[in-house]
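Example record

One chain of 522 residues, shown exactly as stored in the release files.
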Amino acid sequence: MAKFNTVGARPSGRGPIAGEQAPSGRTHEGAPGYARDTKSELFLLAVANMVGEQTFYEGANERDARFRALAREAAVADPEWFTGFVGWLRGEGNMRTGATVAALEGAKARLEAGAHGHSRQMVTAALQRADEPGEALAYWTRRYGRSVPKPVKRGIADAVGRLYDERSMIKYDTGSRGFRFSDVLNLVHASPESDKPWQGHLFQYAHDRRHGRGTVPDTHTLPVLARNLAFGDSVEERADILLDPDELKRAGMTWEAALSMAGDKVDKAALWEALIPSMGYMALLRNLRNFDQAGVSDEVAQQVAERLADSEEVAKSRQFPMRFLAAYRNAPSLRWGHALDKALQASLGNVPELGGSTLVLVDRSGSMQSPLSARSDLNRADAAATFGAALAMRCASADLVEFGTRSQPVHVAREDSLLRIIDRFSWMGGTNTADAVRSRFRVQDRVVIVTDEQARGGEEATRQVPETVPVYTWNLAGYRYGHGPSGEGNRHTFGGLSDAAFRMIPLIGSGQRAAWPWESRD
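Predicted structure tokens for this chain:
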């Protein structure tokens, strides 16, 4: 009689997050804890870690120290993997501070180990916005002093040449920064790029404005800066220039600067309507309340809503899905709701349509209620509800369950508004993951658990499901120990605050190897 080659037999896929197959520790709530290898622990921590932020079970200093140690170890052991990781973390992963810290700590570790190469590439991969070279120097000098090693300087200089232009100077070279553009240039000795003949003039003007020399930008080589500098005088002569969208754009006026300059000189609704055409996607998203309070017209609001709901705009913006939930909860009027729901759905484009039946368990325990960051009203429970509900809506057949001390189903239908479904979740106390899995598993084809993995009790959660049934854990916190094995057979873990990890489910389910997001598959 065949033991293995039976009906339903299929090759087991492999996931990149590799962990122990037997527990070596305990979760923070006392359940069997499974450690991961260095790369896996670093990845899960990086995609959930807002640097310098307290979490439910780890203090900010403890968490940041663990992150630094993992980054240093990975950078020395496998620099090619680490460089790809840093670039992905800053880009698709959209974790700005974490990428900078990882790259600089990795470079420091390689220098200390006497390992040559890669450090420059690590640093430049992490810097993708014009304020980040200054951020990198601020971090380095605070931790290691003003002596900046050559590979770090060169990595930052590469980013400077790529990122510094007129509009970025207007936006980011301000007195609130400890390291102005001029300071960065002096420290890293960046040279203008050969295909940017205006950049030498920009660098010189950065030094002049830093030292208050009163230099006026040349209207031919730096036209945007010249108009921006003169714009304040123009407003004093005629305030209605603030209501001309073309003039605002030509002068590179940020919405913050325009509002400050306007004061009570012009109508706020008219000012917003002039600013909106040149505002970026995130600026629109964060100002919906201001638009309502100022009384922006329905016609202009419709234009904003169309941009918010546009799937291409959503993709380019790289917003975390929870930002749309935050905007929905903060906006006073209902005129944004449909657009935000469409935007949220578009931001979850990686969520697969899974055939068969799926049990989706969403952790709503106390530890999931801590905020994602000190500046956020949202928490990991909100993120779990968002991802769990989105997955359930796209499954051919799904049982969506919230759990904590107890568990209960959450109603979901494909025609529902995702934002409304999220409001159906409640707080559920402790983290009795094993009980929830055992009581809700009904021979579904797969189980997905969205959680921080800090289960309580003496049982291992995934053992409540037969080994032939895949269990996918989506980790939203990055603590050291997980609640089950990972990386082999039918037990896999992925993580993060974006939908990118969803790509792994159909790959692993079909017996393929799911590579790291920045690597090509075998």
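Notes: Residues 111 and 158 are 19 Å apart (CA to CA).
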